[in-house]
Every structure is written in C-alpha cells, then in structure tokens.
Amino acid sequence: MLSDQAHANELTGRFPRQAFVSIVIFCVLWEIMSRLSPSLGIPPFAIPSFVRIGESLMKITPLDVIVTLARVIGALVLSFVGGVVIAMGMYRSPSLENYLHPLVRILMAVPVVSWILFAVLWFRGVEFRIAFVLIAVCGPVFLVDALDAMRGVSKDLRGMMRSFRPTAFQYFTKLMFPAILPSLITSWKINLSLAIRVVTIAELVGAVTGIGHQLAVAQELFSVADVFAWTLVLVVLLFLLEALLVRFEARVLRWRA
Amino acid sequence: MNATMSTTKSEPTAIEVENLRKVFRQATTGQSVVAIDRLSLHIAPREVVAIVGQTGCGKSTFFDMMIGLEQPSEGAIRINGKTPYADFDAFRGKMATVFQQDRLLPWRTSYDNARLPLELMGVDEKIQRERAMHWLKRLGLENFANAYPHELSGGMRQRVAIARAFVLQPDILLADEAFGHLDEVTAAELRSTFLALARECGSTAILITHQLEEAIAVGDRIVVFGKSAKLLADIHVAQWKPEDYGLLREAIQATLQSNSPDARLIRAP
Ligand SMILES: Nc1ncnc2c1ncn2[C@@H]1O[C@H](COP(=O)(O)OP(=O)(O)O)[C@@H](O)[C@H]1O
Ligand SMILES: [Mg+2]
C-alpha cells in the first residue's frame, strides 16, 4: 500500500526529495567502491567509475533506442487492438468465451523464456520473432483486463443506454469504451513496463539492432560501463513513457472525482 | 367527445398491455419467480398515470418490459401499436426514460449527458445544442452545463436526467421511482416540474412509485399493483370529489396493505 504522499507523487509524476537523496547516496557509494576496487582485488572493469559510465553514455546510439522503442510501441498497439477486439467478441458471445478463456489462461502461464525459444524455433525473421514474443506476453493482459472491465460496466448504465436505442457501434463508442478506458490505461501501464523488459531479452536473440543487441555486445566486450549505460537508458525510457501515460490519463479521466 | 359513449373501448390507446406475464428463473436456486401475473391495462394518449405498489411487486419488471429490455414470458405490450421488445429500433427517439438513480454517464458533462439521446439519433449538432441548452435552462441548470455529474448534488443530477428525457420531446415518457431517493422538498418540486413539462409536451406518461403520496400528487389516474403486479385498483381521480380525497387515500392505503381491493374503491362515488 502506498502512503498518501507517495500516491500523490505518483499521480502528479513529481519526484520526491527522499528519492533524490537515496539515489545520490547510491552513486557516491558506487564511486567509492569503484575507487577502492583495485585494493580490494576486484577486477577494474567490474565497478566502472562514473567517468567511464559517462563515456559509455556519450556513445549511446540513438538509432538503437528508436528501434527498440518502435518495436515496443508497435507490438503494444497490435496487442491492444487485438486484445480489445477479441475481448469484445468474447463479451458478446458466451460460447466464444467458453472456448477461448482456458486458452488465454494457458497463454498467460507460459514463461517469457519459452516464448523466446518458440519464436527462435518457429520463425526466421528477427522482427517477427520480437513482435511474436511481445504480443504473446502483452496481448492476453489487454484481453483479460478489457473483458473484466466490460463485465464491470453497470447494468444500470447499460439499460439506460439501450433504452435510447443506440446502434451497436454507438453502444460501444459512447458507453463501453469510455467506461472501460480507466482499466485500459492501467493495462497500458502494466504492459509498458512488461514490454520494455521483455523486448531486450527478445532482442538478445539474433537482433542486430536495438538496446537488447547493444547489451549483448557490451557483455561480449566485458564492458560493465556499457551495460550500465544502456540499462540507464532503458529505465529512463520507461519512466518517460510512464510519465506520458500519466499525463494522458489525467487529461482523459478528469471527470473522475 | 361524446359523454354517452361507453368508456375506453373506442378511444385510441397509446399503451396496451394484454395478459402480460413474466416469470424469472432464479439462477442460484433454480426456482421460478412470477414477477408479473396476467396484467391487462390500457392507457390513452396524453394520459398521465401513476402506478403504485409495494417494493418487489414487479413494477420495475413491468418498466423494463415497456422499455423493451425484457421479453414478456406470455402476453404482450404494445405501445403506439408496436412491441417494444420485438420492434426495438422502431422506438428510437420516441420514448424517454427517467430512472431511480440518475444513470448519467460520469465522463460526460451535464450538457453532453442531456444531448445524448439526440446524438444517438444523429440529429444535427446545432439542434442538439439548442435543445439541450433549452431544457437545461428550463430545469435551472444553465450555469452547470459544463459540470460533471460528480460535481452536482443528487437533485441536480436528477434534473439533468430529466432534461435528457425531455430533449426528445417524447411521445412516451416513463419514470421508475424517479424521485424516490431525493429529499421530500426536492422530490415534490421536481415532480411538479416533471408533470408540468410532460403536459406541455403532450406526452403519455407513466410514473412508477412505491409512495402513495407521490401517486396521489401525480393526478389523472392511479393504478394500484398488488403482488406479481396484480391489478388491485384503477382510479380515475377526476371521478372523485376533492372532499373525498382523504377517503381515497385511506382506501388505497388499505388496498396496498391487504393486497386486495378495498371495498370503498370498488363502489366509487
Ligand atoms: N432478473 C431477475 N431475475 C430473477 N428475479 C428477478 C429479476 N428481476 C426481478 N426479479 C424478481 O421479480 C420480483 C419483482 O421485482 P421488481 O420488478 O424489481 O419489483 P419492484 O420494482 O416493484 O420493487 C422480485 O421478486 C424480484 O426478486
Ligand atoms: Mg423497482
């Protein structure tokens, strides 16, 4: 459970002072360890100084960041559209739901590593493999959340809406979609952090671009500084995207008390 | 109209209910509940009718069948000659509803809620705006057009719901316990506004309530439901002299309590 202050910070996207302090302390400790490492018998590359990390950050290639970002956004959009459309079908047809529900539960229980191995064994195209893994992981989350949210739309509102005789399209766009939007945004937040973490693993296998590929290269070069730098980029990327989502959420959900 | 003509038969009918029956099968117990047992009722155009009955007697079930949300188990409802359930889309724009809870869309402002029925009909936006603003103004909400439901009091939200019903200038106006959850002063005020507007629009209106006082306040005609929507009494208030209203009230009260027609109602003056 978040404290009220923490919750308020999360809502406004503000950075609390305490977090700043703990990060500074971590960096100072890291730097001290880095300086002491020769005398402690730790290999010099293991804990690079911030000067070294800074150099690695300067060498970050924007193209790899953009490629990874594009893969994540593309796969999430496909997962979202597919998940919501299938959820709509399942909502309207109980028999479709009876067929698909167990399957979705099974899909959600499959570990990410298995998806990656399947992807490698089944497909040759690198982009296809990555998209497959991301969609397999994120699609069911959108589907299940959207279906739950549709079921949760109040019977009162559905009756009111139907009493005015909407078309099926109006019923969806003017009642169901706005009603499930808060849940959909929450699923986007969950899936965004999931996808950012999964995409790098998927990119480790066979990709020649992207942050995951650069991490693999850094590993081959025994460069902790490069790994650190690329990881930092990933984390910042995730935070930026989450901040965007929070702003979007505040905009479209301002009707909430 | 010819006074010697025998009643209702030859008059046109807006709402016809014939031998209506609704049986629910409870999902958990598997038992059947007869919510409505062979109800017959005729309502003339422009008539304003109050239906009163105790909680659980089948009023909302009847309401849902008039709207066309529930299918009758037996018998039929015809509104202006059409069946609300089977001819569902034929009623687009012709029927307006007010419910117990305001049932506003929480993500829409008062204005956007009020114009919803017109929007669903594909009415020109300019007309949507004119009509929605007109009715919001009539209901004293001109300064709250851009407020979201959560920013309004219960009474104000119900006003928005009433505006949403009247933008259609509907032939048929149906209200189920529309003022039941409001405080007495607000309820009385909204009820009289509602009735005045209904008469002004020339709508056929049915107001469902479990409160006797509300039923009496509504006027023209009071229909009393017993268990399973059994028709216990059908009172045309105009046939009663104002000095007998006290008697009428007692007789309806007794009818509701005993679940059988009170003798005083049967030999109406
Ligand atoms: N969907 C349903 N399934 C099963 N029973 C129902 C359903 N709707 C109503 N009932 C039953 O029908 C009876 C009448 O309910 P209702 O029409 O809501 O009464 P009222 O509006 O007069 O209080 C009640 O016994 C209620 O439990
Ligand atoms: Mg009811």
Key structural traits:
heterodimer; A: 257 residues; mainly alpha; MetI-like fold; 2 domains; 11 helices; 0% strand; B: 269 residues; alpha/beta; Rossmann fold; six-stranded mixed sheet; disordered N terminus; binds adenosine-5'-diphosphate; binds magnesium ion
Model description:
The complex is a heterodimer of chains A (257) and B (269). Chain A contains 11 helices and no strands. Chain A has helices at 4-12, 17-40, 50-58, 62-92, 94-109, 112-122, 126-151, 155-163, 168-204, 211-220, 224-252. In chain A, helix 4 packs antiparallel against helix 5 (94-109), helix 4 crosses helix 7 and helix 10 (211-220) runs antiparallel to helix 11. In chain B, helix 5 packs parallel to helix 6. Chain B is α/β, with parallel strands linked by helices. In chain B, the strands form 2 sheets. A 6-stranded mixed beta sheet of chain B has the order 5-6-7-3-8-9, sandwiched between helices. A 3-stranded antiparallel beta sheet of chain B has the order 2-1-4. Residues 1-9 of chain B have low confidence and may be disordered. Chain B starts with 14 loop residues before the first strand and ends with a helix. Helix content of chain B is 33%, strand content 22%. Magnesium ion (MG) binds at residues 59-60, 177 of chain B.
